[in-house]
Design a protein that fits this description.
Length: 416
């Protein structure tokens, strides 16, 4: 029901703000707009069309990756991967039978997210969600495993945020990759908070030897990675970031194909079989995307964020650092709602205040630290027909909030 209330809230707030901006504000106000409601209606219809086009755009990516995954599945690779990571994942996802193939799909999804491979992460995530739905005893209600999986996705652990480096370079940053370590720390905090929060709710024993040692090992790995990249020049960080993710991705594809051939599969026929599943998934998520993205677009078009920005600036003290933080906050507030919207705000912030300003850098860290919560909810749960999301959204948003606090603290530590 939470999602339903949020959805209705977006429409209601947008309508009320439209009326206020049209009839209740003086013409001298920056928020006054006689055409507010007509513009919102246009935005509503445009967003419906855009959501449909987005789903169609996903079709090609889904068919490609689900076709490749079908090869890996029939060749036995997913099962081998599941057995390998079962000791850790069986503790984090206790409702999943040990060695179940879905564990391999979950790991591949997390790996794609960490490498910043968005085009691969979504199809892999949808495949994992389908596997979790097969184990779900109540089909229209999110299971514990699905909630844990979704919150870990919304927290968006990303090691290589290459797109942010690209935007910073285009906007004249003297060191486009200087936000790399702050983003890595912030996204790790968000993921850890989301995992622990959901784990406590689900009564997962984090003091279990296997789980505790695994988390310590992951933390140690992240620490080593941070130490390694701190030794590199900005140019080398950018070079390694650009190459590593794509080389790994291409290597995985080639390995799937040749391993399938080694197992005497007709890899092309198996690929087509999986690709058909991708098309079906893309069609199923269209209503969910249209419904949620239309509400979010209407909320944005109503001027809600303009009011938030004005309010944040008004509440800011005369302290220059507080003002700089407030100027970047809109990016953080937009990120759970819209990836494209938060990206536009990040670019606008860097354009207005400078890519290498404290505000510009903080905006980039907000953008790179977490994923788009409501988009992931719509696509992942929509693809399997889950209607009751239980506490998935609220806990995902709490992880987003944790990342916001961490981003501010880390930015102060790194950029003064």
């Amino acid at each position: 029901m939470l999602l339903a209330y949020i959805w209705i809230g977006f429409f209601t707030i947008a309508f009320l703000l439209g009326l206020i901006r049209t009839f209740a504000l003086p013409e001298t106000s920056s928020l006054y707009n006689l055409n507010a409601i007509p513009e919102m209606v246009v935005a509503l219809f445009d967003s419906s069309k855009g959501a449909f086009e987005l789903a169609i755009g996903l079709t090609g990516i889904l068919t490609l990756w689900l076709g490749l995954l079908k090869i890996a599945e029939k060749a036995g690779l997913i099962e081998k991967l599941s057995n390998f990571i079962a000791p850790f994942f069986s503790k984090l996802f206790p409702d999943i039978p040990k060695g179940h193939p879905v564990l391999g799909n979950i790991l591949m999804n997390f790996s794609a997210n960490m490498l910043g491979l968005d085009n691969a992460a979504t199809p892999l995530g949808l495949k994992a969600m389908q596997g979790l739905q097969e184990l779900n005893p109540i089909k229209d209600t999110a299971s514990n495993s699905q909630i844990m999986f979704l919150v870990l996705n919304t927290s968006g652990l990303t090691i290589i945020p290459i797109n942010i480096f690209m935007y910073r370079a285009q906007l004249g940053s003297s060191s486009p990759s200087d936000v790399f370590i702050p983003i890595l720390i912030t996204t790790f905090v968000a993921t850890l908070v989301g995992m622990i929060l959901v784990g406590i709710k689900q009564k997962i024993n984090f003091l279990d030897k296997t789980l505790l040692l695994s988390l310590i090992g992951i933390t140690f790995f992240i620490s080593i990675l941070i130490a390694f990249f701190l030794q590199l020049t900005p140019n080398l960080i950018k070079l390694y970031s650009e190459l590593s993710g794509n080389i790994i991705l291409f290597s995985v594809i080639i390995f799937f194909l040749w391993y399938g051939l080694y197992k005497k599969l007709n890899v092309f026929e198996v690929f087509i079989e999986g690709a058909k599943e991708g098309f079906d998934v893309a069609i199923r998520i269209i209503p969910y995307l249209v419904g949620l993205l239309s509400a979010i677009t209407l909320f944005k078009a109503s001027g809600a964020f303009d009011i938030i920005i004005v309010g944040v600036k008004h509440l800011s003290s005369n302290n220059q650092r507080v003002i700089e933080i407030a100027q970047a906050i809109p990016t953080a507030l937009m990120k759970p709602l819209s990836g494209s919207g938060s990206r536009a705000l990040m670019i606008d912030t860097m354009t207005q205040y400078g890519a290498d300003s404290f505000t510009g850098r903080l905006s980039c860290i907000f953008q790179g630290a977490v994923d788009t919560t409501f988009y992931i909810v719509a696509v992942y749960f929509g693809s399997v027909g889950v209607k009751n999301t239980r506490y998935a959204i609220s806990y995902g948003l709490f992880a987003d909030f944790a990342s916001m606090i961490a981003a501010i603290v880390v930015s102060i530590l790194f950029f003064g």
